[in-house]
Amino acid sequence: MSYQRIGDHTHHQYGTIAPHGKHTEGHKLGAGKYIKSMIYGGMDGVVSVFVSVATVEGGNVGIAIVIILGLAKLLSGAISMGVGDWMSTQAEVDNAVNEKRRETWECDNYIEGEIEEMVELYVQKGLSEPTARRLFEIFSRPQHRDLFVEMMMVDELGILPEQITQTPWKHGLVNFGSFLAFGCLPLLGYIGIVAIDRLNGKPLNTGSESETDRSSVEPFLVSLGLTIATLFFMGMLTGRFTGSSLLKGGFKTVLFGCIGAALGWGMSFVLHKLS
Question: What is the pTM of this model?
Fold first, then answer.
């Protein structure tokens, strides 16, 4: 994206440069730290529920059974994904806290060795040894000790400060909610058919011969369309947060989502034929 000048301000996707060199950065904080949980839960929800729908679609099971199986998958999957995200994030936080304690102890008991490690790392990055040594002799002073530990966490272990301050239950909740919100979309076509039939006084289609006068092709096509549209939306949302192409993100997510759905449906089809 090129720079765009409006009045005295220069705008770019990464921020705005105002007169006198004032710079407003375009970082997407706040909800951005939950984007992984949201995309992970939403994509798994819409794909897995659609595969459940597609798997039973070919059989004479009726719309009601499709909805029941879909809702069962929706709820169980949302709980599993939410709890899994919560526990994995908690493990990540616990590991980061433990490593910070270890690095702090090493600083308190063997600061010379820690300075040597950091000097070696930054010499490899391109600094001269005298410059690196002078730099970390300053950072290792008691008044800068927290900053020094933080630098060691990042440079030695690849652990960012934000990993310690994560709130695991919030990540789990976002994943759970995203799975439910996006995962319910493939079922809307079927739920809509049932709602219309009930309003018109028609019996619920359970798959028996006397109740299969309505084809389930139409709701399945609605389910397919909503699934593709949802995947495309999530891809664009990812592009919005990462600053990449919205269309590219949308098409890429649709592609991988469809591959995943096709593999899931193909496996169930093969197992059904072998049974």
Answer: 0.76
